[in-house]
Amino acid sequence: MSDTAHKSADKNHRKPELSLRQVPVQARAQQSRSKILEVAIELLEEVGMDDFNTNLLAERAEVKVRTVYRYFPNKFAIVATIGEEMFKRWSDWNEVHFQNLSDPASDWEKTLRTMIDGWIARLTEEKGARALLQAIRSVPQLRELDVIAYSAWVGEFERAFRLRQPDVAPQITTVCHVTVSSVYGLIDYYFRCPPAIRSGLSAELAEQIVGRLRALLR
Predict the structure, then answer these.
(1) pTM: predicted TM-score of the whole model, two decimal places
(2) Is residue 21's pLDDT more than 90?
(3) For residue range 34-90, what is the model confidence (pLDDT) as tens digits?
(4) Predicted local confidence at residue 35, as pLDDT
(5) What confidence tens digit (pLDDT) does each residue in 139-181 have?
(6) Contact assessment for residue 213 and residue 110, using Cβ atoms and an 8 Å cutoff
(7) Long-range interactions of 115-123: CB distance < 8 A, separation 24+
(8) Rounded Cα gap, residues 179 and 209, in angstroms
(9) Which listed site, 13, 60, 61, 78, has its alpha carbon 20 to 30 Å from 174?
């Protein structure tokens, strides 16, 4: 997701119930907010969205509940903030790869394979990433984040391929949707599949996507 695409998911475009109450300016307040978010990620991974709540968060972060509410109106705003910050990190990582995809002189197949491998690696290595994705896809209050991220990702793929090949076939839009949907499906299945086949999943998916795109890209 580029910076432009990411802006559509920032706090200025949130629903009222997800809007932040206060953005700290002083260093001590910033540290307090950062600690709340750090502990929130740990709790989300530990107990899941259903059992995640502000009282437990305040207790674990060793702050008063009112301190949590100083910055966040509810637990959904906390998770939304975690999600936005995670998406921004992922967007920064994706940016150079989308630039490569758009460059006619680059090896788009290699880039795409690298991206898919990288997404799985980030998902498995970043604390709370899996729990966060599960939350934003299953909780109605957070679904908008998922929709925004999905739409931006599809848009980035389509933009890159059209820059690479302006006369690309109209089917590229559908293929971009299928690409992102397939990666979403892989992520959902990755942790539920037999461990013996995990290592080959991303390569198999990449091969299928690359095979379809070969028919559209020169």
Answers:
(1) 0.83
(2) no
(3) 999 999 999 999 999 999 999 999 999 999 999 999 999 999 999 999 998 998 899
(4) 94
(5) 888 888 889 899 999 999 999 999 999 999 999 999 999 999 9
(6) no
(7) 116/183, 116/186, 116/202, 116/205, 116/206, 116/209, 117/202, 117/203, 117/206, 118/93, 119/90, 119/183, 119/187, 120/186, 120/187, 120/190, 120/201, 120/202, 122/90, 122/93, 123/187, 123/190
(8) 6
(9) 13
Question: Which pLDDT value is given to residue 23?
Answer: 67
The C-alpha angle with vertex 147 and arms to 140 and 145, in degrees rounded to 5, equals 65
What tokens were used for 119? 């997404």
Q: What are phi and psi of 176, to 5 degrees?
A: -65, -40
Give whole-number Cα distances, 103 to 98, 106, 111, 119, 174, in Å: 9, 5, 11, 21, 21
